[in-house]
Amino acid sequence: MRRLTAALLPLAIGLVLETGCKSSRRHRAQVVEEESGELLSSFGMSNPKAAVQLVKGFHEAEGLWRWTQGKFSMALKSPKDAAAKGGVLTLQITAPEVTVSRLQSLDLACSIGGTALAPETFASPGEKYVKRDVPPAAFNADVLPVECSLSKFIKAGEIEIRELGVIITSVSLESK
Amino acid sequence: MNWLLRIVPVVVCLGVYWPGIQCWFRMDDFAWLGLWHEIHTRRDLLLALFEPRAQGTIRVISERLFFLSFYHWFGMDALPFRILVFATQAVNLLLVGQLAWKLTGHRWSLLAAPLIWGVNPALSAPMTWSSVYNQTLCACALLTALLLFIRYTETGARKFYWLQVLVFVIGFGVLEINAVYPGLALAWAVLRAPGYWKPVLPLFAVSGAYTLIHNHFAPKQRSGLYALLIDWQIPSTLGSYWVDGFGTWLKVSWILAGTALAFVGWRIARRDWAPAFAIAWFVLIIGPILPLRNHYSHYYLGIPTIGLGLLGAAALSISRTAASKLAVLATFALYGATAAPESRRLALDIRDRTREIRQLVLGVEHISKANPGKLILLSNVSSNLFWWGMNERPFRLLGIDRVFLVPGSETSIPDMPEYGDIREHILPPGQTVSALNRGQAVVYTVSGRELINVTRKYHAVASAVWRPGLAAIVRIGDPVFADQLVTGWRPIETSYRWMEKRGVLRLSGPEKAGSSLRIEGYCPAVLLKPGPLEISVSVDGVRLGASAVSNPDVQFQFDTPLPASLAGKEQIEVALEASRGFPVEGEAYQLGVVITEVSIR
Q1: What are phi and psi of B535, to 5 degrees?
Q2: How confident is the model at residue B579 (pLDDT cuts 50, 70, 90)?
Q3: Could you tell me if residue B335 is inside a domain?
Q4: Scanning A57, B96, B383, B565, which has the fewest C-beta atoms within 10 Å of its C-beta?
Q5: B425 with B493, same domain?
Q6: Same domain, B187 and B274
Q7: Which domain range does residue B486 map to?
Q8: What CATH number should be reported for the domain holding residue B528?
Q9: Closest to A143 (Cβ–Cβ): which among B91, B364, B461?
């Protein structure tokens, strides 16, 4: 019995310290009511305020960027004056070595507000700023869906459990 | 002096794993915590205690009673659960020291064996996860029973033998691996106490009887993650576990594993059987796990690695010269320098992950209180947070049913079919927009440890991307889908509804031609007494076909092809009709079958 008491003594001391130090701060939920600010037209993929605008096809942020799936979509705020002047959509995208070496080349096709934009071909690994003019007619709402699809992608389970497309670092929609 | 040798490993080992006492609940914990809510009658209590669950296991003491009683007393405060685990582990460390002392006769074994075992990274699961208390308690049962048996062999007093039997039998309520205990006792008798092997033999009969009974009520799985695969790969799996038992630094583990085997071979050649017993401990306990090749997991090493502690104690005990002592201590140092930091790192990592889960669950509780009656949608939930924290629906423990991921989350969280179906946690897009338009939902995004209300922003995004409308799937027992049920459905019972003889519901039309309608449910035995039951399917008044159900109380699932003309329709009306129903006393309607889900595929 003395051995048992001896064994439990360190535990008891630790618990006294543990609960004593923390008795003053009960576990409280950290809930922030109604974030201020508007939807964004341009953002980096690691921006937590923009996470709500990534609709589907994006994996978790890894540093400043995210892997996409074969299809991915997001919603962007329509920039001021774009409905009159038109705009420019810019995607900062990296075609990684692992994707290009497996798939040879791949095409990225996007649409914004239902208007199809010219596709971009990735034939070699590396980073590109994919820029496309967006006609004024596409700016038909305050918030525009941007839908993108890749002609080829790495299926889930081929090299890891996730479906992998390209790496995207930022997106920007600006008026001309 | 002995007091100090006993207490140092307890201080060190519990210290290394101390973040484990700060861990909250995760994964299976929530299912076990929910057991309490299933108990309404005496029969429910018996089912909660003895019904095979989670891969057919029946761990009455270490899982059922542990979670039922602690949840009853402490609710969702994890600390008391963790204290019990740590207290049990403190006792285990004492018992390992005692066993090592008995094995080697060397006083320093009191220190070496528990120290080696107690910092092993394989303990990271038991020391951080309340659902794995079965491992900690099973180690306690095995060690206690064996030490009682050893006492019996030392004194000849029968009371120790029968106390050992008592602990052994109780151990079956802790973990199935307890069935290997007679092997451990026999190994001790043969190697350390010749003449005492005969009293061990009846224990094998007890294990055999338990195995038969257990297999009867919890049949072996022949496929999937927990399939038992008995083939030529078993020695290779054993080798992998042996190496991994020495830690997670592969090169160091190989060196230590090879050194340990060479040491054992050398000692056996010299007819020193103490290391052989240590190996027997490892092999006997990992043995039943080896056929579970598809579920190779480090946490299975928790109890077998006691053998490594015994082996270390044996090595120390035969060191006579300064050089040999130095060599043994250098080996210990190599092991400790890799194992202890890794164990600490794992414990810290798991603690932090479970803290995120606690923030999520408590945050949702706060949100639910602030927004009574509203759907709660969560965005930006990480894979870890979902599979560790949300998949087992912890919110139900707080009386909150209507928590979903926003549509599209299924693409950012990798599928893990062995754990569940993420789609069950996602509110379909059309319903999301409808609920937001009606002000019936709030949306929170997970940002670090904060939950931020983004309802207004998300409403704008969802409205831009999706149209309000019906879902292409109806989970009949989920109140969220109640709007899509038209006629012939009884109230929700737990997670399902009875359909009357005929039931009607609405779905959005298929997106494309070539789709089919999937019906899933259960048929009660009473309806199948006259023979198979036919369930017919009509869409928009046109009969599309019928399927026969013949197995009672087993889930049925059948697909009916949909006409191409339905593609793109905003809404279709589906009518299901059973070929017969059974009357309910005092009611005008007849009950048909239980339907769990209707979906377009």
Answers
A1: -115, 115
A2: confident
A3: no
A4: B565
A5: no
A6: yes
A7: 474-600
A8: 2.60.120.260
A9: B461
State the pLDDT confidence band at B192, using cuts at 50, 70 and 90.
confident
Residues of chain A with Cβ-Cβ distance to B411 below 8 Å are 56-58, 69, 72
Q: By the CB < 8 Å criterion, does A25 face chain B?
A: no
Architecture label for domain A2-175 = Sandwich (2.60)
ipTM for the whole complex:
0.86
Distance from CA of A3 to the nearest CA of B (A): 7
Q: How far is it between the farthest Cα atoms of chain A? A: 85
Of B7, B451, B465, Cβ closest to residue A32: B451
Inform me whether the C-beta atom of residue B384 falls under 8 Å from chain A C-beta atoms: no
Residues B552, B489 share a domain: yes
* Tens digits of residue pLDDT in A126-149: 888 989 988 888 888 889 999 999
Q: Taking Cα atoms as reference points, which of B134, B137, B199, B133 lies closest to residue B164? A: B199
Mean pLDDT on A11-22: 67
Beta bridge partners of B442: B376
According to DSSP, the residues that pair with A146 across neighbouring strands are A74, A112
Q: Does A12 touch chain B (CB under 8 A)?
A: no
Q: How many domains does chain B have?
A: 3
| Length reported for chain A | 176
Task: Provide the strand spans (E) within A29-105.
Answer: 31-32, 42-44, 54-58, 66-77, 87-95
pLDDT for position B325: 83
DSSP string for B81-100: HHHHHHHHHHHHHHHHHHHH
Q: Among partner residues A3, A34, A51, which is closest to B380 by beta-carbon distance?
A: A51
B233-258 residue pLDDT tens: 888 888 889 888 888 777 888 888 88
Q: Are B412 and B488 within one domain?
A: no
Query: Does B170 lie at the interface with A, CB-CB under 8 angstroms?
Result: no
Whether B376 and B236 share a structural domain: no
C-beta atoms of B465 and A8 within 8 A:
no
Report pLDDT digits (tens) over B90-103: 999 999 999 999 99
